[in-house]
Design brief:
alpha+beta, elongated, 31% helix, 235 residues, Ubiquitin-like (UB roll), 2 domains, Fumarate Reductase Iron-sulfur Protein, Chain B, domain 2, 9 helices, 2 iron, 2 sulfur cluster binding, tricarboxylic acid cycle
C-alpha cells in the first residue's frame, strides 16, 4: 500500500524555521514506521536524520511524535497509522536536526535523582537479598528504557524546562522503594522541591506515551505520598 509521510524537517545550520517535507512510500501493512523511514533515507533522501539502533523497542532511540503522539518508530505498524502519517520530533526538546532532539538536559535531570543503589553499611560479604514481594514493589520502574517519550509528552515540561520530568521520577521511584537502598530520604528531598514531583498535573500523557506500558502517573503519585507521609514501605 502507498502511504503519504509528512515529516517535519529542520536543520539549524541551514534553515530559518522548520518546514514540512512529504514522501510517498510503498509499504506492507506489517512494516514498521522505522522501515518506512529507512526506505526514505536509503532510496529517496539521504539527508533525512533520525535516531535508530536495536529496532526492537529496547534501546528507545527512535522515539518521535507520530500522528500527534510520542511513540517508538520501531513499534508502530504501518497498518495502524493510515494512508497519511505525520512525523515530528518530540516536543520539549531542542531539535538538533529533523527528528533528532538534544537529550542532554533530559539525562542531566535523570542524574539529579541519583539513579543508583545507595548503601551506608559495610559490604555484607554476600548478596543483598530481598523477597519476591520486595522486588515486585519497584518492578515497574525497572522497565524504563530512557527513551524520553513520557517527558516529551508532558505539558508541564513544555511550559517549564526546569521541571525534573516524569522519566527522572520513575527512575527515582525504582530506588526509593528498593528494600536494599538507603538513599530514599535524599531522593525524596530532591523531588520535594519546587521543580520536583509537585509540578506534575496528573494529565496522564506520560502513561499513554510509555512504550513499555509503565503506569508513570501512578508511580509519580506514590512518590508524592512517600514525601507527605515519610514512609516508603507501605505506600
Amino acid at each position: 500500500m502507498q502511504v503519504l509521510m509528512r515529516i517535519k524537517r529542520f536543520d539549524p545550520e541551514r534553515d530559518n524555521k522548520p518546514y514540512w517535507d512529504e514522501f510517498t512510500v510503498e509499504v506492507e501493512p506489517i512494516d514498521r514506521l522505522l522501515d518506512a523511514l529507512n526506505n526514505i533515507k536509503w532510496t529517496m533522501d539521504g539527508t533525512l536524520t533520525y535516531r535508530r539502533s536495536c529496532a526492537h523497542g529496547v534501546c528507545g532511540s527512535d522515539a518521535m511524535r507520530i500522528n500527534g503522539r510520542n511513540r517508538l518508530a520501531c513499534k508502530v505498524l504501518m497498518r495502524d497509522v493510515g494512508k497519511k502519517v505525520t512525523i515530528e520530533p518530540m516536543l520539549g526538546y531542542p531539535v538538533i536536526k529533523d527528528l533528532v532532539v538534544d537529550m542532554d538536559q533530559f539525562f542531566d535531570k535523570y542524574k539529579q535523582v541519583k539513579p543508583y543503589l545507595i548503601t551506608y553499611d559495610s559490604e555484607p560479604g554476600t548478596e543483598r537479598l530481598q523477597s519476591a514481594e520486595e522486588r515486585a514493589r519497584f518492578d515497574e520502574g525497572t522497565k524504563c528504557i530512557l527513551c524520553g517519550a513520557c517527558t516529551g509528552s508532558c505539558p508541564s515540561i513544555w511550559g517549564n524546562q526546569d521541571w525534573v520530568g516524569p522519566a527522572a521520577i520513575v527512575n527515582a521511584h525504582r530506588f526509593i522503594f528498593d528494600s536494599r537502598d538507603e538513599g530514599a530520604a535524599e531522593r525524596l528531598n530532591i523531588l520535594g522541591k519546587k521543580d520536583g514531583v509537585w509540578r506534575c498535573r496528573t494529565i496522564f500523557n506520560c502513561s499513554d506515551a510509555c512504550p513499555r506500558g509503565i503506569p508513570v502517573t501512578d508511580l509519580i503519585e506514590e512518590v508524592k505520598r512517600a514525601i507527605i507521609y515519610g514512609d516508603t514501605k507501605s505506600v
